[in-house]
Fold this protein.
Amino acid sequence: METPQSDLTAARLKAERVGIPAARRHIFLCCDQTTPKCCDRERSIVAWDYLKRRLGELGLSDAGGVLRTRANCLRVCEAGPVAVVYPEGAWYAHCDPPVLERIIQEHLVGGRVVDDALLLVRPLS
């Protein structure tokens, strides 16, 4: 099945608008789960709303160099909300707003892993 060129063109333009060409880091946050296991669903939504708002306030969204993705489940299912930041592959636990703020400031902006919230580090090659 061939993809129409107009679909690819529209998708490429959208990718530019959401900042993919400028991306230095990408944070995935487990939230709004179909079956909440790592934490309460409402707690995960509060975390997502905080992350989204703060990245916008700090100019990190779009062309600011940080991509964000809401993940239904990151499969750890303990100590949530759970987040992972790439390219470093830093997996974080208890990602409520205070921890997210540290991840934003120290890791996403400063490039330093937040050791006391860290589950493990596993960069993908």
The longest strand covers residues 25-30. The helical segments are 5-17, 41-57, 97-109.
